[in-house]
Amino acid sequence: MSIRLKDKIYEKKTPHPAPVPPPFKAKPERPTKKRKRDKDEQPTGSKTKMKRKYNPIRCMYYSEIGHNNKRSCANKKAMEADKHARQMQLQLAVVAPSADRAEPEVNSIPNEHDPAPGEIAPLPALPSPT
Known about the structure:
Elements lengths: L73 H22 L9 H4 L22
């Protein structure tokens, strides 16, 4: 024989309002890794299994499929080689002499301080010590 105390027959009516539970205080803990999703949002996938196929790897410079490495990009190496060759050609074009003269203009006119290569001035005679 059991007595049910929750029945309305045994409850006493009081003029006071019903008791309210204390407010919930969240305890400090480690932050969550992912954001909380709404009920109508779909899950993003399995938490335990990886995807079988990923998007193809693309080059960060030329967006070609197959590699994403600075050292293995053949197009970048070719472009760097072409750029270096163009710089060398520009440097040679600036320094190279004209086609109708055999020597550069700077060396073609000798002056008194810089004699021509064929003419070397003799050294002055030293006075004798006696």
